Amino acid sequence: MAQTVPMIITNNNIIVLDKENEEFKTFNMPSLNPSPNIPFYHEFAEKIAEDQYYFKEFMKGIYGKKLNKYILAIIVPDDTSRLESIFINEFFVNSGACKAVAQMAMAPALSKDEQRYISVSKSSRNVILEYVRNNETVVKKLYDIHTCDPKQVMADAEVLHIDIEYNDVPVFVNNFNMNMDEYFEMGEIISPKSFMKKISKIDVEKL
């Protein structure tokens, strides 16, 4: 039976859960030269075979040689585009480092208890405000990270969806990348440790 391996694409690297010791280990691709406002993994396209090899070797160091029994549960930033999602899936499923992949954005993974909530997060290029209902994003609003006004984000959060106007909906501030200081007053802060704890128990069938 296939086993799920949680994996998170952060703003600048990849972390993978080592289930033996229940710790996340960091993978940094060698010789990357990221450009401003462009996710670092775009660089993988320049040397796909080589980068897939490095990642496979990294996975072997954690899970041994029999990697075809694992499914990578890939958690991506909230502003990941459809085209980027396709590239990410194709890159890892064809790396030989797993049997298959499943993908989920960060926001729907923030809470298993709340049916409705607002998430605010920040990638390397955007601030992302979204309304999540039943583990799915209903509305998403993106703001340029360089020009975004936190007060505007807070105001928009109150009218993002009609559900919010008529219900008491909690707000989660995703501080996984430790870059959300100006948004702390919006709601409950999700720390990196808290987020990784949630992800370590993720059910791939729900992705």
Largest sheet: 5 strands, mixed
Low-confidence stretches are none
Helix content: 10-25%
Task: Give the CA-based shape.
Answer: globular
- Written as H for each helix and E for each strand, in order along the chain, the element string is EEEHEHEEEEHHEEH
Number of strands: 10
Q: If strands are numbered along the chain, what order do they take across the biggest sheet? A: 3-2-1-4-5
Give the quaternary arrangement of the chains. single chain
Strand content: 25-35%
Q: N- to C-terminal separation?
A: 18 Å
Alpha-beta content class = alpha/beta
Please compute the radius of gyration using only Cα atoms. Answer: 17 Å
pLDDT averaged over residues: 92
The number of helices is 5
Fold and architecture overview:
The chain is of the alpha/beta class and 207 residues long. The chain is built from five helices and ten strands, in the order βββαβαββββααββα. The chain has a five-stranded mixed β-sheet, sandwiched between helices. A five-stranded mixed β-sheet has the order 8-7-6-9-10. The mean pLDDT is 92.
